[in-house]
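Box 4.2: Ligand-aware structure prediction
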Amino acid sequence: MGPSGSGKSTLMNILGCLDIATTGTYLYEGIAVEKLDADRRSLLRRYALGFIFQGFNLLARTSAQDNVELPLLYRGLSRKDRHEKALAALTSVGLGDKLRSSPAELSGGQQQRVAIARAIVTEPSTLFADEPTGNLDSVTTRDVMELLTRLNVDRGITVLIVTHADDVAACAKRTVLIKDGLIESDVAKT
Ligand SMILES: Nc1ncnc2c1ncn2[C@@H]1O[C@H](COP(=O)(O)OP(=O)(O)OP(=O)(O)O)[C@@H](O)[C@H]1O
Ligand SMILES: [Mg+2]
């Protein structure tokens, strides 16, 4: 958490191996990420990390099923494996009955759940979410936070969330406050 412009997205992009810091080093599982070339960094992202965005970032005019299958296509999985894994991911986020719906036919909360299914279909160890509930109303926000909490508790996925909302932050086990590009406080729930 932190004010606008404090550096939350910048920090998340570095942690998510999308960006490299100008100075210093970032170790992911002991690997100095800034020493990897762009191809290796993208492999690390593809195999270990998942991303969720405020604006959902789904492909329009593309079904929920096909949106979720996309990262598996990049991994070279067979059509049958892609179908099965996407179906399982969409079912696990409660959208097993919306496989053929395109984003325009879904509510904001449902679109975000498709995006979560797309992020978890590759079984990442860490999930990065930059204001995932920023475009959602409070009831839908609660649904999405329950889902993200379940991914952490049931599957052991680490979830990093940037948020401006206190109720979203309250779901987390640890809260880092950022101000003017620096960590102001870092508090773990006991
Ligand atoms: N690649 C970059 N290189 C240098 N400066 C950057 C870069 N990206 C962002 N900044 C600057 O760093 C600061 C932090 O930006 P950032 O997007 O991380 O803020 P934020 O905390 O996510 O804000 P918001 O809550 O509005 O999303 C801003 O002043 C921004 O202009
Ligand atoms: Mg931001």
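In the box above, the bound molecule is adenosine-5'-triphosphate. Residues 48 and 187 are 26 Å apart (CA to CA).
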